[in-house]
Amino acid sequence: MRYAVYWDELASEVRRCTWFYKGDKDNKYVPYSESFSQVLEETYMLAVTLDEWKKKL
Question: Which of 12, 25, 29, 49 meets the CB 3.0–4.6 Å disulfide criterion with 20?
Fold first, then answer.
């Protein structure tokens, strides 16, 4: 949950919006496709749960 510090506001849920990447020659971040973002999200949740971080997709 997120709570405002400097003004009155109801608490709100914190959410990630999407996954991004930046290639070696890119100047800005580019969003992954929704389908690959779903794979990343599932893999991330598994890594958090199992505490296993080094995995290539």
Answer: 29
